[in-house]
Amino acid sequence: MMKLDGVVAFVTTAEAGSISMAAKRLGLAKSVVSERLAELERTLGATLMQRSTRKLSLTNSGQTFLPRAQRILREAEEAASELAARSGKLAGPLRISAPVGFGILHLGPALGRFLRDYPDIELSLELDDSFVDAATGGFDAVLRHGAIGDGRLIARRLASSRRLLVASPGYLAEHGSPASLAELEHHRGILYSNRASDWRFADGTGWSVIRPKAGLRVNSGLVMRDAAISGLGIALLPSFFIYEAIAAGQLIEIGIGLQAEGAELFLTYPKDHGASAKIRAFAESLRRSFGYPPYWERAMAPHSQP
């Protein structure tokens, strides 16, 4: 009989790309994962993976079996979640991915609240600023800010956040404060390298787009914030990164008469997975922790430009 722990080992290894990474995600010894894979192959009478010292790849049998194995695990997990929800108790693993900066600044207290309410959930959080595919990345759900634009996904809105143009008092004293898009284009920009370097602003009829000169490109919102505080240029950042720096006078919001494209926060998961009771509970817990409007927007109110 095929054992579920062997299916878990196979799916995790296929999604992680190596037995070592799969063992790390599962919290098991590498030898245990290898043995479970070998037992699954013996049970199925087929080789699912080709192993070498350099890489691991799926055989034709493995490629055929993988989507079915993923479906088996999803259905088993969803069935367990439904039963737990009916009994008023949620339990078992929940694997979430989130951006690094937002996770560092805002997820610690929120996760504490969630796990106090649901102590039997085994939560695993991975912080990653690169694009994480919520449909194929091996996570139950992925937290994102900004547009989703992926028909394979369902997105549960968690909170809103504005994107604001900011710079240090020293930078603005030396270079002046731009009052229009035309003036803004002549300033040094601190740009996020994991998305298009365009800055988009609503102009009443659509979007106005500018491409500022890059003084710095970096794939971290926290580094962008700190670079702006240091006076390296103007940054366009979500309010959840900068609300404290604005309140402390380290950064000043720049008003050019146009609203920048926002940064809505979503919890996304694949349509074909369905929303398990755990995902629904996690999303609702985050909403309660962030508040409406979220606490970073409430803190910004006295300091916002008219």
TrEMBL record:
InterPro entries with a match to the protein in the record: LysR-type_TF_proteobact-type, LysR_HTH_N, LysR_subst-bd, WH-like_DNA-bd_sf, WH_DNA-bd_sf
Alphabetical list of PROSITE patterns matching this protein: HTH_LYSR
Keyword Transcription regulation: yes
Alphabetical UniProt keywords: DNA-binding, Transcription, Transcription regulation
Source taxon at top rank: Bacteria
Pfam families, sorted: HTH_1, LysR_substrate
CDD domains per UniProt: PBP2_CrgA_like
Residues in HTH lysR-type domain copies: 2-59
Keyword Transcription regulation appears in the UniProt entry: yes
Family: Belongs to the LysR transcriptional regulatory family.
Entries under PANTHER family matching the protein: HTH-TYPE TRANSCRIPTIONAL REGULATOR, TRANSCRIPTIONAL REGULATOR-RELATED
Record protein name field: LysR family transcriptional regulator
